[in-house]
Amino acid sequence: TLQAKMSRPVQARRLEGMDKNIWVEFVQLAATYSKVNLGQGFPDFPAPDFLTEALRRALGGGNHMLHQYTRAFGHPPLVKVLAQFFEKLLGRDLDPMTNVMVTVGAYQALFCCFQALVDEGDEVIIIEPFFDCYEPMVKMAGGTPVFVPLRPNPPKDGKLMSSADWQLDPAELASKFSERTKAIVLNSPNNPLGKVFSRGELGLIAELCVKHDVLCISDEVYEWLVYDGKQHIRIASLQGMWDRTVIIGSAGKTFSATGWKVGWAVGPDRLLQHLRTVHQNSVYHCATIAQEAVAQGFQRELMLYGKPESYFVQLPKELQQKRDWLVQSLDSVGMKPIIPEGTYFLVADISQFKSDVPDVPSSDEPYDSRFAKWMVKNKGLAAIPLSAFYSEAHKNNYTNFIRFCFAKEEATLKAASDILQKWKQEKTS
Amino acid sequence: MFLASRNFCCCGIKLRTDLLSRSIKHSTSATMPFRHKNARRIEGLDSNMWAEFTKVAADPSIVNLGQGFPDIPPPSYVKEELAKVAAVDRLNQYTRGSGHPSLVKALSQVYEKVCGRKIDPLTDILVTVGAYGSLFSTIQALIEEGDEVIIIEPFYNCYEPMVKMAGAKPVFIPLRCKNDGNSASSAEWVLDPAELANKFNSKTKAIILNTPHNPIGKVFTLEELQVIADLCIKHDTLCISDEVYEWLVYKGHKHIKIATLPGMWERTVTIGSAGKTYSVTGWKLGWSIGPEYLIKHLQVVHQNTLYTCPTPLQEALAQAFWMDYKRMDDPDCYFYSLSRELESKRDRMAQLLKEAGLEPIIPDGGYFMIVDVSTLNVDLSDVDEKQPYDYKFVKWMIASKKLSAIPVSAFCGLETKKQFEKYIRFCFIKKDSTLDAAEVILKNWNKQ
């Protein structure tokens, strides 16, 4: 039916080029075709009991004012316990009222950073591959994204690559900093590769930030998901970095409850005050009761910090096993996984399976995207093409990789393994 | 930083390195010239009068009739639905970005009934973080530098900074009292049609309408909406219609959706709020409803700002909506029962204020009431702050009477503040004991 419209063009220019969104398409495909969904990043196992219990307690506690507005910049019990936690982790005093702000997921914290600190003409360095929202958010703020790639340096002994083998070239990184550079976005542990930046690598970035007086937006949502005894290092704790860094975190990733949409920004008041201005003029308040329950979750973790019963100890232990299972499943059929040091994602090289999906040189869709679509439709296994995490200009740089999420029940991972085994058998016969 | 790049003829590299290391040391100290200013879009938008007044009113000995939130409990079935949802695993993970499927379906059913037209749950609705989030998404999606946006004064105070943050120019027009200052009802506050027409020009991108109106409580009549609609159509302008108090309309009045007027559906985004509908302001869920070709741009903004709203709250809200949808023809439906409950609170509030010698303006809708306090002749001229009279009055009232309200000039553009500085706003969606406590204060007002 013909819909009546206004005769003048309606949308604001800030939305230019932003309407495409890979998730809409791939989530739809997974919903329609997948038997095993290792695509979008969320756990299919339940959130921990202590968290859902905390919500039930808050609901049953008779304080019906938990259904009304709380403090706009963060529910007091939550900002207090976050300040306590991060004081420990950063080794510095934090004021819950000025150094912490609660947001609707880490996503909204990122949005506040770009809107607060990026102006037209500012450049923002983004390390590829990147969580795909960084680019449109920089553009919506009028900024210019400047990309620098992690480059794979495969081990000479033919062993499986690790996410640690993907590295920045120091000279190349330095060349990206200019007079117009306002900020660099760091994501460690990194989605999609699972890379956990080393102290040396962070030091390199820190030195450049200090030298060029650049801000660091540090997306650390997977901070607790680090494997093989590795350590997550917070760039804000490096020399000269606290004053210029905003650290972003997520209850969704920390507590396996992505649907709660509680996140936070931690940093110096001088930067956070500007995030507060954006926040108060965009969403203002975040949901009270979710914040109340997350606060209780953190209070439990504060008491159990470092102990074996701590969720922050148990979750990475469990996920490491799942990682190893998936690595094994993929390797045994000839898909080459890049072993992630952190996060709940892993990227695998599907070169040996390319014969199933012929190349179409005239197509402007990246190969891995076509492969992933074919795979979900024909094998019922959902994954995300690595090109989704690259800028337009670089989408065809790495055409043979897809990303799997392994934050899944054993049964799901077993079912994925069965699909892969069957697929391999079909190829060899 | 520039020190590092200067060339010194004799000492060359070593001096450059020394300067570089000194500049690095410098940057770790807080006194370093810091070029990390805020982005221009938020320049001057940092002030927040709510922060000031909510902090002061947080003292439990103060009877808080200021900030607009209920201290009455939400209906029990709403709380129960959330408790049920907490037990369902998959409801703790991400849902659909533009709105949880069961919620957008429920909203489409409710509003199809109200509007008398088909509403597609997937394309005509966006769920946001409160109506606040809907206002932001709408303005970011459709308003930009070079645009003008008409705002009716007094206005819910976020409209102005949101329009400015989008780079556009707010154009104000005040509601004026018909009877030249002596008004007993919100209906007497009206727009001058000629004055309104003059505000429209080729740059006017949108007008923001708020009905029922905060703070006055005015419920725009069909005739008044028609005047606005005619101008929107004539000038091909958008209408952003903030209808968060849509169910709170009192006897003798009817809430009319401007989007249902001829020629208006295609140019209107209508905003609603779970917080105001179900007395759960802390759930922060709202929605925008309109034609696909407008809503799709709001959806793009939303997917680049926070992507999804919390799942469990959306599911619980959907269940509550289904329950009330089924009884929309029944007077026990919460949409109507809340309004009846509030009408008696409104009448009580008005009575209390009259007994204190005040002349309240009786609202036809919403849960706020404004009152002219100049008749009390409280002399605050010795309070030497440059603040408007109503700010000073509210602060004085909090300190000396232990009763809080909100100054109405906070809801005005710079040029209109003087017109409204004798009014303060009371919120009456409060439990009986709160109103009892207010009664004691108001009865004893003149005794101190």
Automatic annotation (TrEMBL), chain A:
Entries under Gene3D superfamilies matching the protein: Aspartate Aminotransferase, domain 1, Type I PLP-dependent aspartate aminotransferase-like (Major domain)
GO biological process, one term: kynurenine metabolic process
Catalytic function, reaction form: an S-substituted L-cysteine + H2O = a thiol + pyruvate + NH4(+); L-kynurenine + 2-oxoglutarate = kynurenate + L-glutamate + H2O; 3-phenylpyruvate + L-glutamine = 2-oxoglutaramate + L-phenylalanine
Signal peptide, first to last residue: none
Cofactor(s) the protein requires to work: pyridoxal 5'-phosphate
Keywords noted in UniProt: Aminotransferase, Cytoplasm, Lyase, Pyridoxal phosphate, Transferase
Quaternary organization: Homodimer.
Protein name per Swiss-Prot or TrEMBL: Kynurenine--oxoglutarate transaminase 1
Organism of origin: Ploceus nigricollis
Gene expressing this chain: Kyat1
From TrEMBL, chain B:
Species this protein is from: Ploceus nigricollis
Protein name listed in UniProt: Kynurenine--oxoglutarate transaminase 3
Alphabetically ordered keywords of this record: Aminotransferase, Lyase, Pyridoxal phosphate, Transferase
UniProt-listed Pfam families: Aminotran_1_2
The protein's required cofactors: pyridoxal 5'-phosphate
Catalytic activity: 3-hydroxy-L-kynurenine + glyoxylate = xanthurenate + glycine + H2O; L-kynurenine + glyoxylate = kynurenate + glycine + H2O; L-kynurenine + 2-oxoglutarate = kynurenate + L-glutamate + H2O; an S-substituted L-cysteine + H2O = a thiol + pyruvate + NH4(+)
Keyword match Zinc-finger: no
Quaternary data: Homodimer.
Example GO biological process: L-kynurenine catabolic process
